[in-house]
Amino acid sequence: MKRNTIATGLLLAFIVSFVLSGVTAVSTAKDVVVSTTVSHLASVYSLSSAAVLILPFIMVFMLMALLSFLAKQKNVGFMFTALSVVCYVAFLIAYCAETRNTSMYNTLNAMFQEQGLRVKKRDFFITVTPQWTCYLTVLLGLATCAVSLPDLRTSTTRYSLKCELEPYAYIAPHVLFFTLFTLVPIIYGVYTAFTKWDIYNEPVFVGLENFKTILFAQGNTYYGQLRNGLWNTVKFVLYNTPFGMVLPLALAMALRKVTRGNKFLQSVFYLPALMSTTTVMLAWTYFFRKTYGFAPNFFGTTFEWFAPPYSWLMLVIITAWWSNGTNMVIFQSSLASIPEDQYEAASIDGANAVQKFWYVTIPNMSYTLMYTFVTTVISHFNVYGQPNLMMGYNYEGANAVLMMYIKDTAFQQGVAGIASAMALILAAVIMVVAWIQLRMMMKDSKN
Hints:
By secondary structure, this protein is mainly alpha-helical. 71% of the residues lie in helices and 5% in strands. The chain is flat and about 85 Å long.
């Protein structure tokens, strides 16, 4: 108990020291030396250094260690503290090794300009050194580890330690990749929406300016792009979602009746879902092309498939063919779990096929249908590949969805702040729609 209290105190000192720590950046040009101090908390908001991505992990590990010590789980607290120290040392080494950190360059270059010097970016070299508080932070972290070091003297204590820490080893890879590729990008994406950032230089916080531009500045280009892209995205969802639910369910029920060749047919129907976006769109481009395509020449169609309104029909056909395999497999699994005696009882009561489907199949698949409905709508809201590769911005952007505008605004025009604001609005729309869906479907299931 006493060691746990001491470890908790040291950990708090470790966290405070980390918050107050930073690095010193120095640059020299024509015998003029300029320097600046960058705290770790300020570095968190820098989007111009890969080493900064380690900082969120350090903070999460510190928080988990503190919660573990407060819960009197000393061994777990030791593990997270050790991870914090290792990640912090790795951050210092990587961050101090950078000689062209953009966030530091802007500050140091402004200092050179104040003294009448102009230094080209390619000739700009920065020396980064940790402050003395960084070394104190490492020592406090090591001291916390030393106080909370697990007892490894007997086989009983080693086995107990293994049982206590083993679950974390199983979930660690998933948590690591989730944090690195999902949680951290979400946090930085939200932050970027409130900044003016061209991807290459340091972001500048501008508050709600980006949202005012795309929501209220009617003469602005991005105002029109948001509305056109969001409306086309909503149309894509409305047109494709019914087919994304009905066709897979029909295929799953049909395959259930097939006794021979069931697995082969299932593989055939699922095969398109394994193909890449580029492969699928290239194949269907050849199919619908007016000059040499199979559809115009075989069926004798004279209209332009790639122009509205036929382009929407083409997108429905392509999406239905390409993406329905996943839902079909889910529906097959759900259908297989329905007891046969329920169908037999319905037959005895004189129910026909439609009544069996409505009163037996649907109630037993309610949660599966809820899940697939929500995930299908979310995936359709994030559509990008089909309209981008098939039509692009042709016909005045008649099929241009919001994700196309977001990508081009960020990476081609270098207006990442506006693009992130658009993405945040799209995410808010998806969350609201998904919440409404869940509320409605849960209400129906209770009734």
